[in-house]
Structure formats: structure tokens, C-alpha cells
Amino acid sequence: MDKPQPTAAKPKRDIFMRSLQISLLDWCKRLAQTSVLALLLVTLSLGLSGAWWNFGNDQPARESRLPGGNAITDAQALLRYSLPIDNKEIRDIQASLEDISTQLRSKRWSGVSKDVAQASRRLSQPEKLLADIPEEKKPQAQALISLMNEDLTAIRAALEAKDKEKIWYERHHFLEQVGELEKLMVTEFPFEVPSEYSNLPQLKGRATIEMTTNKGSLTLVVDGYSAPVTAGNFVDLVQRGFYDGIEFNRAEEYYVLQAGDPPGPETGFIDPTTDKYRAIPLEILLKGDSEPIYGITLEEAGLYREETALPFSAYGTLAMARPENDPDGASSQFFFFLFEAELTPAGVNLLDGRYTVFGYVVENKELLRQLKVGDVIESAKVIEGAENLVEPSVGGVS
Known about the structure:
Helix content is 33%, strand content 16%. It is globular, with a radius of gyration of 22 Å. α1 (15-31) runs antiparallel to α2 (37-47), α4 runs antiparallel to α8 (164-184) and α5 (109-123) packs antiparallel against α7. The chain folds into two domains: 15-49 and 198-390, Cyclophilin-like (Cyclophilin, Beta Barrel); 85-184, Oxygen-evolving enhancer protein 3 (PsbQ), four-helix up-down bundle (Four Helix Bundle (Hemerythrin (Met), subunit A), Up-down Bundle), CATH 1.20.120.290. A hairpin with an 8-residue loop joins β8 (283-284) and β9. It is an alpha+beta fold. The longest helix has 23 residues, at 138-160.
């Protein structure tokens, strides 16, 4: 994604990603009627990069995000799992309730019952949940635990009635409380960003952004815990009003929707203070690691088999575009990943570890299907978390 957009209006193009998408679409059109489509797509994805064939690599495989290794495709779940906390009880509760969705799809009522029982056992020991909550926040945490117990009672009642819709509803509400409780467990920003990036804005936490287009509004959550420099740059540009009036300059079904290319010859943000292009480094946090890797793709680092904290596995994944051959060349252009399970399978889509993911669309993601080239971002504003934006340090360049 060239400096960092592959549009017809610019001379440079992201040849690799464009050819990948064309190849995937071509294969799918010719093989859509076969029963081995997914297998062939995996094989195709692996074959497009020679390094993917190096299965003798000594890098250990990390644990899957969910029991059974199911890829998570829900944005809210991904955001919950990527919070920098280490409380086994709340993670077990979350995993049990997340798993209910799998059980419901096949109407495995015994599986739902088992998940509910598991969550109930963990909730019966609130002291373990409260152990990681700061003292001043414990009353709020206790109130959330009470609400979770009420929700669990409602889920049991719906389970007895085999009311699938009610279970879905109560599960969603329960997981919202889980997410709020997990947020209370985060007491400080978990790592120090390398000093070489102190001249760039950083997001030390999360922010929620409302993006209004000519066809409707989207709500995004950007995650500074996983990508503080990238998220900080984006929030800073939102605060500056940079994206207001910007058109979507690329829209490809089942692939990407891209914006952030300013009018004129420039392909990114020119900081008025320095009159220079603001370049943002590639920033990838691996699942289970304490801080991101900067300036190098996971493939180049020999870590291509590792899982990222924020993967390209949810429809509406928010990521930075960049020049194909410049990991540190991103600036203002971003894209929404239009996840399609058969075209771009979670975990084998060749995007994880090559581009920085820094958030997800959490409300009205269906709108992404309607937006095309020429549609406009009328406004973007931070509606929560603006206080987490840290401006460049004294002596740095803003």
C-alpha cells in the first residue's frame, strides 16, 4: 500500500497486495463449487511467500486464543483479550461465555450448560477477581460482579427454555460487564515506547472515535495498548480534523476500504510545525509479549508463525497502509479490512504481521459494505479516551 495508497491517481502501487487479492478472487470464482475451497486458499496463501514453507523453524507455536484453537472474529472479543491483564479467573469466565456462541450455532445445549457452570464457579470466588482491582475501584468492580451474577441467572433461565435469542442477548450483556471489569484491572500502561519515537504522539490506553460519512456513522475503538504510536498518530490526526472531508480512495469488495490520502501531491500528513512528512513505524505486538516489535515485518523477523495481539480476523479491522518496501513509511492513510472467511481466512491471510492493526469497528460495521470510492468522511471525533493521548515529549518534534 504505497506511500501508502494503491490508487490509480498515484504512480506507486502496492503490487503485492493487489496481485494477492486478484489471485484469491480468481481462485474463488473457479473453485467456489468445490468442497475444498478453504484448503486450496490456505495452500495458496502459504505458497505466496517462500518463508511460509519453512515449517522446520524452531519458533514455538503459541497457545490458541480460545480452547480448540478457534480463530476469534468478533471485534469486541479481540479487544477484551488484548487488554494487558493477567487474571486467570476473569479470562476463564470470558472464554466460557465466548464459547457459548460456538455451542449455540449447533444448538449444543449441553455445551452451553457446561460453559455457564464454568463461569458460575469462577464468579463464586469474587475475591480472586477483586485481587487485581485497585482499592478505590473495588466498589465499582463489586457492582459489576453482581450484575454478572444476575446475567448468569438470566442465561440459565433462557437455557432451560432453550431460548436461543434470549441466550444471545444475555450473553452479550454479560460480556459487556466482563469487559468493564477487565478495564478496571489495567492499572498502568504496560511498557515504555522506544525513545526514538518520542517525537510522535502516543496513545497510552484506548480511545473511541465516531466517524461520520455521507452514508452513515461508524464507531471505532483504537488500541494504544497494542500499538501506541500508530494509535496516537491516528487520534492526533482526528483531533486536528485532518480526516474531515477526506474521500475514500480505494474500495474493493471482500478486501479493503481505504482513506486518508490528502488532496494534492502529498500522500500523507505534512506536519505544519516541521513542514515534513510524518512517518509512522510498523508496530506489531505479538500475543503474550510485553511490548511491540518495531520497523520489521514478522516474516522478516522469522516470527511469521506467531499470533498477533490484534489480528486481521474481524470484519472492520482498522490498520495502517504503507509503502510495500518501507515498513516505517505509514503516515495518514488507513484501511478497514473487509474480512471474508473464504477469501481471507483468519490466520492465513498474509496481512498479520505485515501491517499494523490498531483497532476495530465496534458499531455499524455493516456500513462498510456500502462505502465506495468518492464517498466522504464528513467528520471524525474522539468521543472517549482523548485524555490518553500523549503529545511528543519536550524537545521532540510534534
